[in-house]
Amino acid sequence: MKAIVTIMLKNGVLDPQGKAIGQALNNLGYAQVGEVRAGKIIELELTETDPAAAKTAAEDMAKKLLANTVIESFRVEVTA
Amino acid sequence: MMKAAILLFPGINRERDMVLAVRQSFGHEPAIVWHKETALPAGTDLVIIPGGFSFGDYLRCGAMAAQSPIMQAVKAHAARGGYVLGVCNGFQILTEAGLLPGALLRNAGLRFLSMDTMLRVERADTVFTNHWQKGAQFRAPMAHGDGNYTADTATLDRLEGENLVAFRYADGNRNGSARDIAGIFAPNLRVLGLMPHPENLVDPLMGGTDGKPLFDALASV
Question: Are B35 and B69 in contact (CB under 8 A)?
């Protein structure tokens, strides 16, 4: 199975990178762009065949290493 | 005299600066300990985690190093009341390892900062800072891209309330750190993490000795 872990800075945590991207998009003429938040996606190939077990394992990995829950939130999506 | 061990992770590049600072104040050579070791040298009193870019700053600064085998020994050392000093990447590693609260985010201005800053000593009654006066200011070089200290409001209030802020930026907050925090102590005052580099000003040949009181204080324990 594949687990896709999406990690974003928590709401309220300043995201200077997102801000800079938003500024650059505005400079390119995309006036409709408001706030931009940048995060990261980590794809994991897992040997698990049970989606629930795969999700639990990936969440555990996110808590221990992939995300720093002091500043980041994450969500896990499992696909075949 | 304290026995010091300096940890070395791949990508760390300030360990020699730290060796020099320790040698100068302590009068003996610190041990260098590779991150794959599972134990500290017998009798280690002080663990120093130097600056650099451990594991290329992959994932988050310090995230990989915090999971290295030696860190279990460092956690046990800290739990026993052992002394730990983390500078720059070392500070980031200590927060990632959960030995100090909060996190270091990308500098608010997104720029890597390579310049001197002034630090204010917030308390002078600790083994790290008792060679300064409370409120004293000293110069320290900064060299970091991720020095923007952050924590939730409750944690920041606790740090202030328990008087655990070690140093604050005194001449402008260039990286956006919450409450101008440049360094913090653990509650037992035996773990210190800070972003600027006192070890880079310990000899007149370096342009000053502003950082030497930190190492002299540790040497006098």
Answer: yes
Domain around A67: 2-79
Output the CA–CA distances (angstroms, integers) from residue B185 to B162, B163, B181, in the order listed.
Answer: 10, 9, 11
Is B61 part of the annotated catalytic residue set?
Answer: no
Residues of A in contact with B176 (CB under 8 A): 14, 16
Tell me the pLDDT band of A40, cut-offs 50, 70 and 90. very high
ipTM of this complex prediction, to 2 decimal places = 0.89
Q: Pick the catalytic residue: B88, B96, B122, B131?
A: B88
Most A CBs within 10 A among B58, B59, B153, B174, hence the mutation to make, goes to B59
Domains: count for chain A: 1
Write down the pTM of the prediction: 0.96
**DSSP per-residue letters across B39-62:** SPPTT--EEEE--B-GGGG-SSTT
- Tell me the CATH number at A15: 3.30.1280.10
pLDDT at A80 exceeding the cut of 90:
no
| Minimal CA separation from A24 to chain B, in Å | 14
The tens digit of pLDDT for each residue in B33-70 reads: 999 999 999 999 999 999 999 999 999 999 999 999 99
